[in-house]
Task: structure prediction
Amino acid sequence: MIRSIRFTLTLWYGAILIVILSLFAGILYANVKANLLRDIDRLLASEADGVGDAISSFGKAELEARQGKDVSPGEVPGSFYEEVRHGGLAELVGRWVQVTDELDTVRPIRVVSGNGETLAFSPSLSKWAIPVSSPTLLTAGAGKTLYETYSIAVGHRARMVTYPVFEQGHLIYFIQVIISMLQTDESLERLKSWLFWLIPATAILASLIGWFLASLALRPVGRMIHEARQMSESRLHRRIVVPKTGDEVQELGSTFNEMLDRFERGFKRLRQFSAAASHELRTPLTVMKGEMELVLRKSRTEEEYERVFRNQLSVVNDMVHVVEQLLAVAHAEDGEMAVHWETLELGVLLRSVAQGFDAIANGKNISVQVLEEKAVNVQGERRLLERLVANLLENAIKHTPPEGRVTLEAVRRGGQSLLIVRDTGKGISAEDMPKIFDKFFSHQQSQEGIPSTGIGLGLCRWIAEVHKGKIEVTSRPGQGAEFTVSFPAPGA
Result:
């Protein structure tokens, strides 16, 4: 199971999911933390700015009341600034605290002068124990609102803003507002805890779902494996059931069945080849064995030995011919015959092959005639086409009685180059007609009564198909047979 595709897919799916969820959780946590901190800083700045506006408004209102008259907008800031600059800031802040009570709030607030002196602070600030830091005031004095985080107790942090207040471009004082981050930190901790447990729980649940889906997807493969294990050499006719999934599993099943088709054809050819070889070679070997045993029973004359040797040579030649035909068919089935294309004149090819059969035909007193039209060309390989013509001619001579006639004809009709072989033999029965081109088909049609394997005609059909042609036969019992091979004419 550990090495199964299902387990591997689930493992990879779970691991990738954990990595993705971890990245997502990290980004989510960082964004939530940054947003909460940004909201806290915005709240602190708003409160500090409000305190500064309240003190400035209070001071300017006092100044107007003391003067007993309306002060123009251009004069008030100057007068207020002059009062603050000459040491009136501490008294102003004190009066503001007494009159407004704005520091009596839950939120700790501290007002610090420009030189670091604490002018006023909320009562609640005493428990925070956050000192006034000179570097902080120095940085904020440069005109930058500064935000800092302090740890005031174990597990308790606070956020403080140092807000500078300016009048006429001059630093007057600082306002520091502090807020507890306890609730924020608790929220972030709860979020972290949720993410910590949610990621593995989600990964486990998704892995279980992935395991189920992988099992569902691979179930057809399991069935195919089971069916494939039931097959053997004697059961090659069986095929696996291809699931109609429209995916790679269906393609795998179809490919496997196609492979089984090739295996079955190969085993069938092997059995047929073995049967044909055994059948064809058994008779001549038996004849040879019988003649040898007979000649060795007693001494013979030289003429008798010569006759036996000639008979043996004739039988050996027949065996060589059978073996050549069998090997030719085997090579043809295996695709080992490479075709070298060239343009050939069919009439010249017929005459060349027919000359090689003159002795055989004359021995049976059979007339072999070649009829040809001019320029009947075919595109193909000479060696294969010569074998095609030789097999057809040999078959015709074998099945033609003495004083008979065999005709070879090359003719062009339409866009086809035709090779026609006619004989005046006994013909082919209607029962055997559909099977004569099957390799290793045996019948007793020859004049000598010797079984014919059909190897030659089977090879003829293969050669015709290789040359993009086809072979047909017409025959009536007692009236001979006519084989017609049609090829595409070059340039047609």
